[in-house]
Amino acid sequence: MSRRAGVSSEAQHRGRGSSAWRGALDIEISVIPGETIEIVQRKSKDAEEAESVFAELQSIPIKGWFDEDGDPSTSAVLTESHAPVKAKKDSPLIKHQKMFENAWWDAGAEDINGEPYLSRSALVSKLESDGMAKRTVINMTNPSYKNKLIGALNLANMIKKYESGWVVIDAIWASAMMMNRGQN
Asked: Which of 10, 44, 110, 132 is within CB 3.0–4.6 Å of 136 for a Cys-Cys bond?
């Protein structure tokens, strides 16, 4: 017995219609299309649910068959595959590092005593030019907001206040920034 998948994001992995349908099923399987097809067991009445299976469609020629242009006809065969590698999302701290470093580059990649330095005015200018609202820029540059740009980098001991800006004090990050500056 098959059921159609629902439309809303919550319903994408369950069938539509009465829940009595699902109760009557011995097994329920979903096929999630994509470059790599995922076959997911959603319900198993009398056994443990199996792990997802991944497959790909492979085109194969059909011997002795040709289309109207004389080209060999093909068919598709489902072949076993591996789970696609999912890209890791950057953590909020990594996003803040990238934002700070981009502003540093835009400001001319300054340094003080061999440590990357970014002035507050240069950071504000970069954030505003990236389209951030004035209130958001104020919050991002306020060290009191521990989950925002400057507060998070301070809390992680990545930067410290210096004159009218900040220097990068994390040795690995500072070294990488200075090495990249030397190559550009």
From this structure: 132
Q: What does the pLDDT average to over 53-63?
A: 91
Domain of residue 169, CATH code: 1.10.10
Q: How many domains does the chain have?
A: 2
132 shares a domain with 50: no
Indicate if 97 and 177 belong to the same structural domain: yes
Closest CA to 28 of 8, 7, 4, 10: 4
**Rounded to two decimals, what is the model's pTM?**
0.55
Q: What are 175-179's contacts with CB under 8 Å, separation 24+?
A: 177/101, 177/104, 177/109, 177/116, 178/111, 178/114, 178/115, 178/116
Question: pLDDT > 90: what percent of the chain?
Answer: 58
- Model confidence pLDDT, tens digit, residues 12-40: 566 666 767 667 778 888 888 888 999 88
